[in-house]
Design brief:
By secondary structure, the chain is an alpha/beta fold. It is built from ten helices and ten strands. The protein folds into three domains: 81 residues, Orthogonal Bundle (Arc Repressor Mutant, subunit A); 95 residues, Periplasmic binding protein-like II (D-Maltodextrin-Binding Protein, domain 2, 3-Layer(aba) Sandwich), CATH 3.40.190.10; 101 residues, 3-Layer(aba) Sandwich (D-Maltodextrin-Binding Protein, domain 2), CATH 3.40.190. The strands form two sheets. The protein has an eight-stranded mixed sheet, with helices on both faces. It is elongated, with a radius of gyration of 27 Å. Belongs to the LysR transcriptional regulatory family.
């Protein structure tokens, strides 16, 4: 026996808006007024939804509309869908008619410490190209994301990606002068202080200490934070000694809010890089951005 299935149906934005406003306001008349539509238009949208989906979305109780179980499920998803559409529309409008928009996934601290302070130079050179930055702590799947490229560490590139190294990662020890004073320290003396750790890269302190010839006794003590931006803030606040890429610590060192008590530097074994999909359409804006990155990385 062949079971008949109802043809799939994708509601329109107008139908979803009619559903949401009717659910929130409780009557068709109130929804129609809020949407600047006639009551008949709102009623038709709801009726079409119910007929095409094959379920009752509302019950009437004392002249008010009350959502059914199916209606509550649809309203939850409809609200999310419309919010995402509105957010996307606002994002596009924010670029003010720019010819191109580059959507870039970035490691947050690399963006705030290195990229953004230089980004105005790219905008002055290429005013017709808009930039949309979003943080990404995990490797980017370009087949399942809106990003044109990513600025992350080389090892985060997925197989087959095109990778342009920008700058190496050199790890240095820093701390607040208010915490440790002005005297230099040996690597072994660092173990007397809380060691601020990055939770996404917990091996960094062990690697640095091993390279410095120090065998830590027991478990390292100190607070843990998700990314380097938090580590920098914690070090400035005197919460312990931090291990940071030198490009992230440069501003705080120049300002004197952090100091480097040990001269040892550990090469991180990786570089920060522009990562692009292996197969991509010709995108002049991304090529120009890549050329600009190479240029400023060499200066």
């Amino acid at each position: 026996m062949i079971r008949q299935t109802r043809p799939s149906y994708t509601p329109t934005v107008q139908e979803l808006r009619a559903l949401l406003y009717s659910a929130d306001l409780g009557t068709v008349s109130a929804a129609a007024e809020a949407l600047s539509l006639t009551q008949g238009a709102v009623s038709r949208s709801i009726r079409t939804l119910e007929e095409r989906l094959g379920v009752r979305l509302f019950h009437r109780e004392r002249q008010r509309l009350v959502l059914s179980d199916a209606g509550r499920a649809l309203v939850r998803d409809a609200r999310d869908i419309l919010d995402r559409i509105e957010s996307s529309a606002r994002m596009v409008m924010a670029f003010g008619g720019g010819e191109d928009v580059l959507r870039l996934a970035v490691l947050p601290t690399f963006a705030t410490s290195w990229l953004i302070p230089r980004l105005a130079g790219f905008s002055r050179r290429h005013p017709g190209i808009g930039i949309d930055l979003a943080e990404a702590l995990a490797p980017v799947d370009f087949d399942d994301s809106p990003f044109d490229a990513a600025l992350q560490r080389v090892e985060m590139a997925r197989p087959g990606s095109r990778v342009l190294p920008i700058c190496p990662e050199n790890l240095i020890v820093v701390a607040s002068p208010a915490l440790i004073g002005d005297a230099p320290m040996t690597p072994a003396e660092l173990l007397n202080w809380p060691l601020i750790q990055q939770s996404t890269r917990p091996e960094l302190w062990s690697d640095w200490l091993a390279a410095a010839g120090v065998a830590p006794f027991g478990q390292l003590r100190g607070p843990r934070f998700q990314h380097f931006g938090m580590v920098i803030a914690a070090a400035r606040a005197g919460m312990g000694v931090a291990l940071l890429p030198d490009i992230f610590a440069a501003e705080a060192l120049a300002q004197g809010t952090l100091r480097q008590p040990c001269p040892q530097v550990l090469a991180g074994g990786s570089s920060y890089a522009l990562i692009r999909p292996a197969q991509t359409r010709a995108q002049r804006s991304l090529d120009l951005f890549s050329d600009w990155l190479q240029e400023i990385a060499e200066t």
